[in-house]
Every structure is written in C-alpha cells, then in structure tokens.
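Action item from last week, closing it out:
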Amino acid sequence: MRRRHQIVAQTFAPVIIQNSNAPFTAEGKENGDAFRDFITRVDYDDDWFGYNNEENLEGADQNASVDLRGYLYYAVQETLSYYYIHYVYFHPVESTLIRQKSLNRICTCTSSRKKLH
C-alpha cells in the first residue's frame, strides 16, 4: 500500500509557482536572501530548531551539511472510492514586508481524487 500511496501522491502533486528573490545583487554578488525562497525539508540544516534557520542560511551554498534540495511532504488516506492527498511544504525563513522577525512558513494543500475502478 505504501508504494501505491507514493504513486498517487506523485501523480497528483501540485505544481508550485512562486516569486523568488533575485539570486544576485546589482553588483553581481550572491544575494543570501535567495535561499529564503527555497522549499526544503524542515530539518534542512540537520536540526529541528526553527529559531536558527535564518543564520543557518547564511553561507548555505558553501556548507555541505545544509541540504537545500526541494522537498514536498505528503500523506495519503483512502476510502473505498476516494484518495485524500495532503501535501505540506516548508520555507526555512518567511520574508515579510515589515522585517521585524523572520519566521518559518509551512504551507498545505489537500486534494481528493475519485478512484477509477
């Protein structure tokens, strides 16, 4: 069943389109804020602490222990006639217009699909 749920989740996975910070400044230097837009694992920095995500993004491109590959969590439940698919994705740092404090951001999406018999 686990393999079937993986196939269902992959088949109906959402297409995520978002604005992104420019990866380089006007002077051609890397802009560390670009990493804020990545969708990655909650423990991308090898720990489960959210309060240090912003500082762990600094120099992330040169730190081998920081894994910024894209990652989408999912869970599939099913009844006799439907699949219910819940997707969760995570931004390590949420950029806000009023930059008082950076927070983590978790986004969710739930979909139901009728089974074809």
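Closing note: The longest helix spans residues 2-11.
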